[in-house]
Amino acid sequence: IELDERYQTPQKQDAFHTTVLQRVRALPGVQAAGAASGVPLAQYESLTFLWVEGFPNQKNELTDGRNVTGGYFDAMGIRLLAGRLLTDDDRNVCVVSKGFADRYFPGRSALGGVLHLGARDRSWTIAGVVADVRHSNLEDTPRPVVYQSMNGSTDGRFDLAIGSSLSPSQTIEAVRGIVHQIDPELVVMKFRTMEQRVEEASARRRFQAVVLTVFAGVAVFLPLVGLYGLMAYSVK
Questions:
Q1: Which of 7, 46, 182, 192 could join 196 via S-S bond, C-beta 3.0 to 4.6 A?
Q2: DSSP 79
């Protein structure tokens, strides 16, 4: 869901997120629901400047930063490794990935650590550590990630993550109805199950492998053609 100019203030965005999630979580069959500025394998990248207190930061240090609500990690099945997960009421609180904790808090607990994102005018306290996730593709090592509370955000991007026993078609229909009731002018762009996202990511990788195989075959074939021509010329 892309929020338009009518939702420019943090208060309006917070109200929208809260209303949508309350109604989605009340749907029969929904076990968990949350939101994020970008779910894994959604071709969404969000790098932000980072400063970690007590760490020898490099100039212009960057990290993957994503805004999330309570319920997001449960809906996505992302394991909690230490501390606690975010709640809908959290502000200035974040959760970090294991890779982030290992990099910026080597040999000590990341819980209670303080970091600054963006212009460093706002500090975030680490409440929990979760398992690493491959957000960009299925091959690369997961990047360190900071999941900050979505409260107070003006990002405008709003991806729903829903864990449900209903069929995907039933869930899609119900969510479209909820969003239309709240704001008929907003458009729900598209839905994907995580199985579909994984399949799409794997398909891109398979296509690349096929292309490389074809080029490798051509590279082998051309010298053979040349060798055949040389032999034919020598026999004459």
A1: 192
A2: P
Q: Are 145 and 100 in contact (CB under 8 A)?
A: yes
pLDDT tens across 40-61, in order? 887 777 889 999 999 999 888 9
Alpha-carbon distances, residue 109 vs 69, 99, 179 (angstroms):
23, 13, 41
Do 144 and 63 meet the contact criterion of CB atoms below 8 Å apart? yes
Nearest to 124 by CA among 44, 68, 182, 170: 68
Alpha helices in the chain (DSSP H): 10-25, 72-76, 98-104, 168-182, 194-235
Taking only the tens place, the pLDDT of each residue in 214-232 is 445 455 545 555 544 555 5
Cα–Cα distance for residue pair 95/153, rounded to 1 Å: 16
Measured CA to CA, the distance from residue 71 to residue 138 in angstroms comes to 24
How far CA 155 is from CA of 12, 95, 226, in Å, comes to 12, 18, 59
Percent of the chain with pLDDT over 90: 55
Quote the tokens at residue 43: 């071709």
> What would the two tokens of residue 158 be?
């709003």
Q: Is the pTM of this model over 0.85?
A: no
